[in-house]
TrEMBL record, chain A:
Domain Oxidoreductase molybdopterin-binding: 37-182
InterPro entries for this protein: OxRdtase_Mopterin-bd_dom, OxRdtase_Mopterin-bd_sf
PANTHER family, per the entry: OXIDOREDUCTASE MOLYBDOPTERIN-BINDING DOMAIN-CONTAINING PROTEIN (PTHR43032:SF4), PROTEIN-METHIONINE-SULFOXIDE REDUCTASE (PTHR43032)
Sequence segments annotated as region (Disordered): 1-30
Protein name: DMSO/TMAO reductase YedYZ, molybdopterin-dependent catalytic subunit
Species whose genome carries this gene: Blastococcus mobilis
Automatic annotation (TrEMBL), chain B:
An annotated Gene Ontology molecular function: oxidoreductase activity
Residue ranges of every copy of the FAD-binding FR-type domain listed in the record: 1-84
Annotated keywords: 2Fe-2S, Iron, Iron-sulfur, Metal-binding
Cofactor(s) for this UniProt protein: FAD
PANTHER family tied to this protein: NADH OXIDOREDUCTASE HCR, PROTEIN RFBI
Alphabetical list of SUPFAM superfamilies matching this protein: Ferredoxin reductase-like, C-terminal NADP-linked domain, Riboflavin synthase domain-like
PROSITE patterns: FAD_FR (PS51384)
Designated name of the protein: Ferredoxin-NADP reductase
């Protein structure tokens, strides 16, 4: 580990314990970071599919997804670009509910999330089950804005936010892990903010 | 402000990549931010451009405290998406300091004798706020100012019509700037019929 930086004091004192290492509180803002143009997706044409290593590949339309038992996340989100946002509230459906219908096979251990734009990100099955991941269409009780992934995005708030794929359209169960878009471009396969798993090798 | 670093055991970057600078206080507290590289891979030093944000914890340290000869902890190069391969024709569209990765591409293109591959459009509020103005003008970049006239062009935002003459067959488009600029510019391209898969976007979040 290198030593201290000459003359750097840092912000002191009242560091919020909700902030993972290397993060700062962005307050009321919600920055937009996306590698591609924002797509315009009409809710009527949106659907989500769970396929791959599952017993029963299943798709839900917008209306069908809204008839599933609703589920909400209240808490913090963390972006690898070092901002964190506290006390967010998202509404949609738990990924557990989708997986119960599609029934992952016994040797399914990973998931590739794919967006309508072709963006992908990989996750372990463990990281999206047990009440830890959602497919969401509401933020603060209102429709999720398009620049934040609306009409529907994945939400995996205990990992860095690039894992929470915007404009989600597919969850593909896999037996072996494969890198997604940012993961092929130098970012970490898991992305735990409390362990600062930002880049490959962290 | 340009920060020129002598990076030991460095791996050559691809134009468009960035570095992370990490500051550590005596008690172990750290803060880190990403900065785009402005230098070409062939430059013996790595040049980062740091925009000073008044409430920026890292940028104020780099602009106000750091002196020649100081050591800094850096990590890089990072990013494999927003990079130019030195062979593909490219349309580069920047808002403000979003021009920095394009300066690296331009310098690299000049170094390998392929400046003909790049077309550049830059939007800034004023000429004074735009870094690397001389190099951009020398490269024939279209410079659009939103708060003041530039030559015979009145102040105003970049338009689709201004991008049309910069189009060349086989181009990839790179868009870099604030979230709102990047969104507006990439939607201009989509409106011109540019395939979304041929547009690479780098949006600046707040950093500091």
């Amino acid at each position: 580990m290198p030593g201290p930086t000459r003359g750097f004091l840092g912000r002191r004192g009242d560091r919020d314990p909700r902030l993972p290492p290397g993060q700062y509180d962005v307050g009321g803002d919600w920055p937009v970071l996306t590698a591609e143009p924002t797509p315009r997706i009409a809710p009527e044409t949106w659907s989500i599919t769970v396929d791959g290593a599952v017993e029963s590949p299943t798709s839900w339309t917008w209306d069908e997804a809204h008839r599933l038992p609703p589920s909400e996340y209240r808490g913090d989100i963390h972006c690898v670009t070092t901002w964190s946002k506290f006390d967010t509230r998202f509404g949609g459906v738990s990924v557990d509910t989708l997986l119960e219908a599609a029934r992952p096979t016994a040797d399914a251990h990973f998931v590739m999330a794919t967006s309508r734009t072709g963006y992908t990100t990989n996750l372990s099955l463990e990281d999206v089950t047990g009440g830890k991941a959602w497919v969401v269409w509401e933020f603060d009780g209102k429709p999720l804005p398009v620049e934040h992934g609306g009409p529907v995005r994945l939400l995996v708030p205990h990992l860095y936010f690039w894992k929470s794929a915007k404009w989600i359209s597919r969850l593909t169960l896999m037996n072996r892990d494969q890198p997604g878009f940012w993961e092929q471009n130098g970012y970490h396969d898991r992305g735990d903010p409390w362990r600062q798993q930002r880049y490959q090798g962290d | 402000m340009q920060l020129r670093l002598d990076v030991h055991d460095r791996i050559d970057h691809m134009p468009g990549q960035h570095y992370v600078v990490r500051l550590t206080a005596e008690d172990g507290y750290t803060a880190q931010r990403s900065y785009s590289v402005a230098s070409a891979p062939g430059d013996p030093l790595v040049e980062l451009f740091v925009e000073r944000l008044d409430d920026g914890e890292v940028s104020t340290h780099l602009t106000d405290v750091v002196e020649p000869g100081d050591e800094l902890e850096v990590r890089g190069p990072i990013g494999g998406w927003f990079v130019w391969d030195g062979e593909t024709p490219a349309l580069l569209i920047a808002g403000g300091v979003g021009v920095v990765p394009f300066v690296a591409m331009l310098r690299h293109a000049r170094a390998i004798g392929r400046a003909d591959l790049l077309r550049i459009a830059v939007s800034s509020r004023t000429m004074a706020e735009l870094p690397y103005t001389g190099e951009l003008l020398d490269a024939g970049a279209l410079i659009v100012l939103t708060r003041e006239a530039h030559g015979i062009r009145p102040a105003g935002r970049l338009t689709a019509a201004e991008l049309v003459p910069l189009w060349e067959p086989g181009q990839i488009a790179y868009v870099c700037g604030s979230a709102s600029f990047a969104e507006a510019a990439s939607q201009l391209l989509v409106g011109l019929g540019w395939p979304p898969s041929g547009i690479r976007v780098e949006r600046f979040g707040p950093s500091g």
